[in-house]
Amino acid sequence: MITLTNVRKEYSSDVAIGPVNLEIPAGGITALVGPNGAGKSTLLTMIGRLLGIDEGNITVASYDVTSTASKDLAKIISILRQENHFVTKLTVRQLVGFGRFPYSKGRLTKEDEGIISRYIDFFNLTELEDRYLDQLSGGQRQRAYVAMVLCQETNYVLLDEPLNNLDIAHSVEMMKHLENAAAQFGRTIIVVLHDINFAARYADYIVAVKHGMIEKEGTPEQIMKNEILSEIFNTEIEVIEGPHGKIACYH
Ligand code: ADP
Ligand code: MG
Known about the structure:
The protein has helices spanning 40-47, 70-73, 92-98, 101-104, 110-122, 138-151, 168-185, 196-202, 220-223, 226-233, and strands at 2-10, 16-24, 28-33, 55-60, 63-64, 77-80, 156-160, 188-192, 205-210, 213-218, 237-242, 245-250. The chain is an alpha/beta fold. Strand 4 and strand 5 form a beta hairpin. Helix 3 crosses helix 5 (110-122), helix 3 runs parallel beside helix 6 and helix 5 crosses helix 6 (138-151). It is globular, with a radius of gyration of 18 Å.
């Protein structure tokens, strides 16, 4: 479980996130949704300790994020940031191999190599593994980054908009991979999603963020309602019953 208690971040006198109180259940997929600038990335990077907390505290599986040593935290939680400042002179295989760093300290064992191959394969990157990152399409590069994060094999995985740059087929595939990782390996996945319909279809729990606060949280069934979605996203949304659950329709 991830617990945020009275968490606050103040960027400036007029931009502040929180206070946020939130419990994210262990296991399954939790989607963070909400309009641009709501504070989703801020919350995710604070949970992953890439950004300091001004007030309050965060625990991940009962480890205090602020006081746990980085090398220990790296075996518990991994994160993909929204913007990747990638080094282009890395191959796909080298990038994915970075995921093993908390274990290998730069010396990859045979076991590490096996794990790297497994995730490369999992994301259909085998044919591209020796290509440099700047020789890939945006979607291929995005898959390589997610493969690197999953290769870290942490119980908690934070992904900020992993569907960026992916076409519909690859988005569906990515969500199925995440579903599998949660179901088969018991991972807890927290994912920022732009498209509420992907959240409704694949997430077990949805947390809606707006103006730096938690606006609503619940199961897809509880969140997928006309008034709730229209309020969260500041536009008229109508929910209809689709073949696999509820679908949000824009006007
Ligand atoms: P989201 O991911 O939901 O789009 P963010 O967490 O990126 O939202 O941003 C939340 C708010 O904080 C926005 O108003 C944004 O402009 C502001 N913000 C984000 N990062 C910084 C920063 N480094 N310095 C100042 N303001 C920031
Ligand atoms: Mg963001």
